[in-house]
């Protein structure tokens, strides 16, 4: 029986993959912002008005879904301005640089890496620091995640993954699947070891970029 849905990986960097459930959910995460001009007929959609025709006055504080913030953001017309969520601000960047492994990423934001990468679409003088922190956080946490995935064979892993963001959880699952496949192969229960779907998807994406 064939699968009804084949999981599609999230996009990389500034781009979203609109076939990815993870990216669809991530695009619903909200950004704090401010209306730099009057926004007609958007009050009801953003929970700030009783009728569908109500406008949001200039200067109003907003909580905007990422997908809408990207659509409205225009540095020339100044329709809206967006602020950094607290986990990407300098105070939290200092925490990450000290020891990224102590942070409960899932509690702070289940799409820390993807959402943070999307923030780079907005004009912000702190963008280089944000990008560097996201990269260093991933590097710092990656080894522990993979070590944990290899040392928790046939164990309850709920406590291990509770503090991971969704990308890290996918890596953890890939590590566990790789270990399980290897164990089956060693016992003669599998004819061959196959590459992880994450590796296969990365390879396909890389060749597509080269062809373009």
From TrEMBL:
GO terms for biological process: mitotic DNA replication initiation. The keyword Nucleus applies. Pfam families: PSF3_N, Sld5. InterPro entries: GINS_A, GINS_bundle-like_dom_sf, GINS_Psf3, GINS_Psf3_sf, PSF3_N. Residues 89-185 form the GINS subunit domain. It comes from the Eukaryota. Keywords: Chromosome, DNA replication, Nucleus. It is found in: Chromosome; Nucleus. GO terms for cellular component: GINS complex. The keyword Nucleus applies. Residues 20-72 form the DNA replication complex GINS protein PSF3 N-terminal domain. Required for correct functioning of the GINS complex, a complex that plays an essential role in the initiation of DNA replication, and progression of DNA replication forks. GINS complex is a core component of CDC45-MCM-GINS (CMG) helicase, the molecular machine that unwinds template DNA during replication, and around which the replisome is built. Component of the GINS complex. Belongs to the GINS3/PSF3 family. This is DNA replication complex GINS protein PSF3.
């Amino acid at each position: 029986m064939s699968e009804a849905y084949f999981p599609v990986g999230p996009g990389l960097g500034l781009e979203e993959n609109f076939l990815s459930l993870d990216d669809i959910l991530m695009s619903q995460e909200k950004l704090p912002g401010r209306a730099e001009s009057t926004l007609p007929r958007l009050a009801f959609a953003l929970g700030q008005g009783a009728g569908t025709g109500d406008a949001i006055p200039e200067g109003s504080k907003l909580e905007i879904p990422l997908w809408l913030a990207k659509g409205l953001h225009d540095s020339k017309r100044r329709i809206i301005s967006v602020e950094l969520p607290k986990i990407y601000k300098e105070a939290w960047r200092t925490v990450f640089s000290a020891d990224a492994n102590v942070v409960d990423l899932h509690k702070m934001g289940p799409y820390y890496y993807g959402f943070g990468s999307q923030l780079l679409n907005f004009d912000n003088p702190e963008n280089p620091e944000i990008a560097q922190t996201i990269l260093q956080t991933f590097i710092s946490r990656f080894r522990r995640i993979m070590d944990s995935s290899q040392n928790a064979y046939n164990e309850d892993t709920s406590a291990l993954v509770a503090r991971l963001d969704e990308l890290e959880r996918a890596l953890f699952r890939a590590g566990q699947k790789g270990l399980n496949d290897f164990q089956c192969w060693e016992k003669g229960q599998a004819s061959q070891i196959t590459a992880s779907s994450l590796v296969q998807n990365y390879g396909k994406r890389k060749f597509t970029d080269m062809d373009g």
